[in-house]
């Protein structure tokens, strides 16, 4: 069984996220999503999420491409995650291209093209404009 892992915040889940998850899952048989906790988002990524970790986890677990959701609590956990979950391939969007090449000693590293026109930030901005 080929095991894939990816990481992210996945706030305001949208079709760009689904495109990523679908393509990641298609690279293997089992997809693990390491979901950024609220603390990690706030302290390390300086992101304030609309949905809480539990709400974002609930949404991800409902997606057919996702087999397991674990917590992402720090930048440094990737190497241990790859070993602990016997990961064959690490996948993430190409906005991170090159940033995780150090994992190549442990597993395949794949950067997938982002879906260009959508983002959680754009959604928030669009909603604010609609409020007038
Ligand atoms: N993504 C995408 N297309 C978009 C938006 C996001 O392909 N229009 C991808 C991102 O490239 C990432 C995943 O969807 O692979 C999750 O996106 P974010 O929630 O923005 O994740 P990010 O904040 O980049 O967190 O340790 C790694 C980080 O946790 C990644």
What are its keywords?
alpha/beta; five-stranded parallel beta sheet; 132 residues; binds [cytidine-5'-phosphate] glycerylphosphoric acid ester; 35% helix; globular; single chain
Helical proportion?
A: 25-40%
Helical/strand content category: alpha/beta
- Low-confidence stretches are none
Spatial ordering of strands, largest sheet: 3-2-1-4-5
Ions and ligands = [cytidine-5'-phosphate] glycerylphosphoric acid ester
Can you tell me about this structure?
The chain is globular and about 50 Å long. It has 132 residues and is α/β, with parallel strands linked by helices. The longest helix is centred in the last third of the chain and has 12 residues. The protein is 35% helix and 21% strand. It contains 5 helices and 5 strands, in the order E-H-E-H-H-E-H-E-E-H. The chain has a 5-stranded parallel β-sheet. Strand 1, helix 1 and strand 2 form a beta-alpha-beta unit. The protein starts with a strand and ends with a helix. Bound molecules: [cytidine-5'-phosphate] glycerylphosphoric acid ester. The site of [cytidine-5'-phosphate] glycerylphosphoric acid ester has 19 residues, from strand 1, helix 1 and strand 4.
Topology, element by element:
Elements: E1 3-8, H1 15-25, E2 30-36, H2 38-44, H3 53-61, E3 68-72, H4 78-84, E4 89-93, E5 108-112, H5 120-131
Parallel strand pairs: 1-2, 1-4, 2-3, 4-5
Bound molecules: [cytidine-5'-phosphate] glycerylphosphoric acid ester (C2G).
């Amino acid at each position: 069984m080929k095991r894939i892992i990816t990481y992210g915040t996945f706030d305001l889940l949208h079709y760009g996220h689904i495109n990523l998850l679908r393509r990641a899952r298609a690279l293997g048989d089992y997809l693990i999503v390491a979901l950024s906790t609220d603390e990690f988002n706030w302290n390390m990524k300086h992101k304030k999420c609309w949905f809480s970790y539990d709400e974002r986890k609930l949404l991800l677990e409902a997606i057919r491409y996702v087999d397991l959701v674990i917590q992402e609590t720090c930048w440094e956990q990737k190497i241990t995650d790859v070993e602990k979950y016997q990961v064959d391939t690490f996948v993430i969007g190409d906005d991170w291209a090159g940033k995780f090449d150090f994992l190549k000693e442990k597993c395949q590293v794949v950067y997938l093209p982002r879906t260009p026109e959508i983002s959680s930030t754009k959604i928030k901005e669009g909603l604010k404009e609609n409020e007038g």
